Amino acid sequence: MTTLFHGQLYQRWIERAYMKKVQPRKFKEGDLVLKKRNQAISDARGKFAPNYEGPYVVKQAFSGGALILADMDGEDLPAPVNFDSVVKYYA
């Protein structure tokens, strides 16, 4: 019983320590981002192939984490992308 209680206290302590340092990622319209490439597509370069493609422009950002992206010419991507699969691009 005491061990279980100690484990729960430890988990709460770790969670609080993590939440102090974590920075929420926010994207707004006009941000430049790189989109993670689909690894299912085979490439002759193998592990030397680039991991991200882009840059893309964030056209619309939803509260649930979905992003509508457009390429630099203004053409929208066919499907929305989750914000977990993009990183900010600093030009």
Note the overall shape.
Answer: elongated
> Could you say what the CATH topology of one domain is called?
SH3 type barrels
Mean pLDDT across residues: 90
- Strand order of the biggest β-sheet: 4-3-2-1-5
Radius of gyration (Å): 19 Å
Put simply, the count of helices is 1
Number of beta strands: 5
Name of the CATH first level of one domain: Mainly Beta
The secondary-structure element order is HEEEEE
Helix content: 10-25%
Biggest beta-sheet profile: 5 strands, antiparallel
Give the DSSP E fraction (strand runs of 2 or more residues).
25-35%
CATH architecture of one domain: Roll
Q: Span from first to last CA? A: 55 Å
Instruction: Catalogue the unreliable spans.
Output: none
Structural class: alpha+beta
Give a written overview of the molecule.
This protein is an alpha+beta fold and 91 residues long. It has a domain at 26-88: Roll (SH3 type barrels). The protein is 22% helix and 27% strand. It is built from 1 helix and 5 strands; from the N terminus they run αβββββ. The protein has one helix at 2-21; strands at 32-36, 52-61, 66-70, 81-82, 86-88. A 5-stranded antiparallel β-sheet has the order 4-3-2-1-5, with no helix packed on it. A hairpin with a 4-residue loop joins strand 2 (52-61) and strand 3 (66-70).
